[in-house]
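Next up, sample data.

:::
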Amino acid sequence: MAEQLKAIGSYLYLKCSYHDRELARSINGAKFIKKWSAWQFPLRTDTYKSIVACFPDVELLNDVLKKVNSITQEYQSYIALKSEVFKNPDQNLKNYLSLPLFDHQVKSFDYFKRMECAVDFSEPGAMKTAVQIALIKYRAREFGIRKFLIICPHQAMKRVWFDDIVKFIGHYKPSIFMMDKGTKQANDYLKEKINGIYIINYEKTWRVLDQLLAMKFDFVIADESSRIKQHASKQSKAVHKFNDVRFRSILTATPAPNNELELFSQYKFLDPRMFGDNFWSFRSRFFIKNPANEFQWFPKPNTKAVLKRYTEIYSVGWEKRKCIDLPPLTSQALECELTKEQRKAYTDMAKDMIAFLNEQTYDVSIVVTKLLRLNQITSGFIQNTNPEEPEDVYDFKPNPKLNLLVETVKSIPQDKKVIIWAVFHHDIEMISDHLNDEYGNALTKVAVAYYGKTSKKDRTEALNDFIEGDARFIVAHPKSLGMAINLSVASYSIRYSMNYSYEDYAQSIERFNRHGQTEPMTEYVLIASGTNDDIVHEVVTKHKKGINEFIARFRDTH
């Protein structure tokens, strides 16, 4: 059988004999399409060259080489366009919405409106949302688009997207459907297929996917797109189904918080031509396995530079400090000493952990889990592993870190609101209970909680009480409240306990360090001296990567 190669849509299709199947399979990105009896590859120059090298006699059909070259030319034109627009943006766009756009927003809007894909990697607080709302209005006017879908974290549905659309959209008044009450409500909205803007959270998307696809949306926005960084999750697979929608945007300040593998899933939604639609091919193309740990992959030489060139396409990324005047942010570490009982428990557990870490190989997730147990002790409790004991946890009394929190709160003016971040549910419950006992009364809660155990209804009430009501403190987990929400009503934050996620740290600190903040900001980080509290703080805040570096520091300290 003579080999044939053709280009259709975003893919190359190779037909070859059964005897050459292993050769075809060896080419990066290969996927056999049974109904066409052909091998599918992403439409890329490097893939085309690999196919021709393996099959030098392949017959090229339907101008395949021209289509391959056109992809490269298209991407190059986007980079050139961005440079041109940024030098001379259309200033008439400044007043396109009911509230004026900043200069950096005008540049983003002018660039994005000329394209079908858009990526905004700007820092939290750089007001990415308004640019997308401008695109909604522009595409409704210029292209007659009437069906829009916004996928975002649940906490961003009302307070970010709904409120901003109402505030910015001006005289164009689309119908807005908030699918935040339940699956039945979402189904009822989608059943009618009414034109308008539909807002849904990631967790619900896959549950009503068939109904969403039947709407045939023309513009889909994935806000905080790092929520789909895991390519095999249900919500990622659901969002990938919209990669043939005409207009697509992704927004995130932390596209790859752990490693560059996390780019694949987001770009599979945005433009599958770029990295293909096969994660394993993407990984083998850009990464190499750690011979000592089969679950760990490192970028190949030059991978970061290549991926940076790819991600320059379609994208803008503004540093907030360079485009918005904000009050200063001061960060201060405050230390406390462990009690003798805590220190003994901490030292014993550290010794056991060092023995574990001295093994030749280890799984990173297991190491992090073990390290978190030490953080529990510095927070003032320890998880009970004895099934015969009636209590799940043992609380250390006195608790020096809780006492330090109370002293810190006393130093803050009473008319100032405070965000308190903690990573253990026990911390959040203990802190909120203590503050309500200390400062509240039977009728009023001064501290509200926002974490994994709180229901959607309670979360909404907590935000309302803190942002608009009488609650002075919100005690929250950064994974629950660390994205999207504007908490500029507060000018103080306290980190009671931290995990090892740079994404959580970077996102949560921007909850109050953003547009709308009018007062100087202060962040206090509570640290138990001589423990891994100070190590994790340095590792996370400086965005250092690599568990080996962390373990080396940990061993030196103990």
